[in-house]
Amino acid sequence: MSAQSDRRWAQLARELEFGQLPELRRQAEGWRAGLTGLAALVAVLVTLKGRDDLDRIPDAARETAGALVGLAFLLLVAGSVLAVRAAHGSPGEQVLLAGQALRDWTRREIVRVTRALRCAAVCCVSGVALVTAAVVVVWTTTGAPADHLVRVVTTGGERCGELLGSGPGGVVLRTEGEKRTVLPARTVTSLVPVSTCASSG
Question: Rounded CA gap, 113 and 122, in Å?
């Protein structure tokens, strides 16, 4: 029984040589489908808005995120091309009829397919990592400071915030924690531009 089992395993090992390339082709086809889906997902994410205040993100962060997404898309496309090459071979390949030539070609093709699959996997992981980095950059970057900050001294104290407007009705501010504050003109004694409201009362 043991000798028969050993012979069977030896036979399977000899047959494995003939099925290795088709198996690699099937794996490559799966990678190709996955990478195509990821590239499409990146394209969709680029067209959708993540944050509503992207215009308030500093230009450097916005450009960095855009470059990361663009590079990720290129990597995913490159991975898809490599996976297609691994799954279907190169265009114009000749069919080999001689046994020894076919064996040599198969061994070389196995090496090429394996290398292409590894590169496709690296492209996939790198592309996903870059997309993640772009999302982190966009969501963690502090918005640009508000323009036109002023400190308004009134008869009741000081207020500091972004100047939204002024007129006969008073001074309109956007203060921290509030959407809009109107200070009546009769109570305003002075208005001074400032760079920050951190030290305001």
Answer: 14
